[in-house]
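Ticket #405: bound-state structure for calcium ion.
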Amino acid sequence: MKTFRTNLLRGFFIPLLGLAAAGMPIDARADTAFKTWIVKFYETAAKSGISRSTYEKAFAGITEPDRDVLEKAAYQPEFKSVIWEYLDSRVNPYTVRIGREMAAKYGSTLNALERHFGVDKHILLAIWSMESNYGAVLEKPDRLHHVPQALATLAWGDPNRSKFARTQLIAALKILQSGDVAPKQLTGSWAGAMGHTQFIPTSYLLYAVDADGNGKRDIWHSVPDALATSANLLAKNGWQNGKTWGYEAVLPANGARLEGQTKTLAEWAKLGFARPNGKNFPRGTDRATLKLMAGANGPAFLMLKNFFVVKRYNAADSYALAVGLLADELAGHGGVQQSWPRPNGTLDIKQKFELQSRMKELGYYEGEVDGNFGSGSKAAISVIQKRLGMQPNGEPSRQLLEALR
Ligand SMILES: [Ca+2]
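RESOLUTION: The complex was predicted; output attached.
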């Protein structure tokens, strides 16, 4: 659910300093230190009611830290993409198509959850997409870690995450002790986010729901359980049934200076804020906060209470906006109507998809049509650019798209 700031690999070596096992290879010394840490941590776990048998099952066969976890923890990039690129990667023809397929496949479950929790089913689908690509991430073994091992690794070897990891490890052990999941199946991200909707263990303990009625709260294998758990989190944090998350707005002259202010929709309308589709804001006393996600030259948004409820999942404005926009697309309301201030000549997400599928039809490109321009797309673009007598820089552009049309 949460992402964490960059840290240094140096934390990995600190536990070694106290060891005088000279002559042993560095990995072997680390393994010994890690195993010692696990043995000692049982005292702490026992104080939280974890039985010896649960503890032994959790760590059965674990003889070394998960080095992949430390690597991922150390190299989390401080990734700052511009808002439209972030949204392109989350709200695009692919995520909309799969979302509609899932809406059909899980239609009765989603309707039941909407009735029971009073939470918009399209928001639940959008969160599922954002968190695990509708569960696809769970099929990738390189993305899955054994949660007790991963959290013990962070608690032992990453001083910046030690406190977080100890708390989450105790919670993970409580989950095991509850019998909801078998020890081998307690998998998650390197930082312990688990299942279809990526709950960290403490959030699981607060919100997990058995929606399919098999007696287990299984967010790893049961889509109904996972989506119900998200719905429960949103409901318990004040989701307003029947309300949307916010409205795109056209900024009046000088409107940007009001960024961050909260007023009723009627007051915003009086100040000259309008909807791009020309419809009126709904009447009533709903209060909304003005957010400019890309400065005064991009679309403005008036965010209602539910936007801030989604932020309980992940505190980034960009995350909550992506959830809201994807939910709107899945509900058939369309996306952002005003343009983002993209640099001249660059493509929007629909154009990126069009360019890739045209390259594919013409036989230049064999990869996925997903709007993502990796090395395959870039190589194909360079070849086409050369043929067309353009500078072969591998970058998708309006000029290239027009040439292929
Ligand atoms: Ca269940």
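RESOLUTION NOTES: The domain at 9-76+140-236 is CATH 1.10.8.350 (Helicase, Ruva Protein; domain 3).
TICKET STATUS: resolved
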